[in-house]
Amino acid sequence: MAAIALLIVPAVAGCSVSNDATTPPTAGDSADHRFLLVEGDTAGYITFDIERETLTGFRSDGTRTWTHSGHYPSDIRCLSRCPDAVISAPLSENPGQKKSLAIWKYAGRTTVKEFTADRLDIHWSSGPDRWIATVDSSVTWSDGPRTGSLSLPGAVKDSMGTQSADRRSLAVSVATGDDSAPRWSAYLFDVSGPKAGRPRLAADHLPGAVGCLDPTADRAATVGENSALFTLGSGRKVRDLGTFSSECAMSRGVTVFGTYAAGQDQQDRQSVSVTGNTGNRTSRAGTSSGGGLGAADSCGVFLAEGRIAAMPPTGTVTRSEIRAAALRVLPDGDVYALATNGTVTRHRVGAAENDCSVSSSGSGR
Over the stretch 151-190, which tens digit does the pLDDT of each residue have? Predict the structure, then answer.
């Protein structure tokens, strides 16, 4: 499932998938993959210790606010501000449970809601009474006292929730139909306020899940096989993007795509492209590191040989001295760097004409 791939592939920029033919190594294959950076914003972040199956929420200054274990999560989403979050613990991934659980960690409290469905993924929430989820064969949302539901044509084979960089829009992608040829559809929610109203169908018959979107520019891109760029307004495909894409990210200036693979030496490998949103200029790079990617202003940000690197669509790769096993780019242009021992530091992405760079800030835990 794509949601579980968020935890297995250490590239949690919100949405990533792996090529079945070249799946990256899991946590047991390398110490670099014990800790994952699963969520984050300017207020805080969340890490996952795969070995101990423990989630931990931190404020941006590194202060720990909560930990949680005992449930295997299919998805983790921050609320209005990290590290407040909701954890999805479906029965399908936790067979010892009697019901699927949604667990909210916020303001020093824990709230648990039970669901009778086998499948549950909370894709967005601002609190225990306001959330958006895929529940068995439906897209369901709660606006406090009222709950709405959109029945889907058949059982949900897979689902993925993807927020825009400004966190004002949410695309819920669902796959139905035959396992060998699933039919992907994307439903768009306005989540700019505390409530999420009824969604609209943004696109149907997509080749894969929405991996990144920019509603202000009326565009989104799919990940997986035969990835494509399409318009959110009409659902029309603009152009094909390649045979396979693991992850993508969008900012006002660029769109970034990455494809992961694992060599015979079990080392992550990544192919990255950074395309300007105006014009057709694209820069490409190949690295021996996985660990996620992001877009900040006019720069693509990713890992290159174990260090955070940045690249514009009209230039070359600039590697920093900041070592990391994973990263997460924030809307304000900062980037969290996750070290192999689970510590997180915060840094700044800078852009000047045809050059990009990442500078150390020294903040974090």
Answer: 998 888 899 999 998 889 999 999 998 877 888 999 999 9
Closest CA to 290 of 29, 55, 49: 29
Asked if residue 188 lies in contact with residue 168, where contact means CB atoms within 8 angstroms, the answer is: no
**Dist. CA 188–CA 262, nearest whole Å:** 33
Beta bridge partners of 360: 347
- Distance in angstroms (rounded) separating the CA atoms of residues 291 and 325: 6
Classify the C-alpha dihedral 125-128-130-132 as positive or negative.
positive
What pTM was computed for the model? Answer: 0.87
Distance CA 227, CA 212 (A): 11
In b/e form, how buried is each residue of 198-224, taking b as 16+ CB within 10 angstroms? ebeebbeebbbbbbbbbbeeebbbbbb
Cβ atoms < 10 Å from Cβ of 80: 15
Find out whether 257 and 302 touch, Cβ atoms under 8 Å.
no
- Report residue 32: phi and psi, to 5°: -65, -20
* Digit-coded pLDDT (tens) for 318-331: 999 999 999 999 98
Tokens 């039970």 appear where? 114
Tell me if 47 sits within 8 A of 54, measured CB to CB: no
Cα–Cα distance for residue pair 308/344, rounded to 1 Å: 13
- Residues 99-123 have pLDDT tens digits of 999 999 999 999 999 999 999 999 9
Angstrom distance (rounded) from CA 299 to CA 357: 9
CB atoms within 10 A of CB 107: 9
Assess contact for 65 and 78: CB atoms under 8 A: no
The CA dihedral of 243, 249, 250, 255, to the nearest 10 degrees, is -40
Residues 6+ apart with CB under 8 A from 109: none
Residue (of 290, 270, 328, 342) closest to 38 by Cα position: 328
How far is 305 from 269, CA to CA, in rounded Å? 9
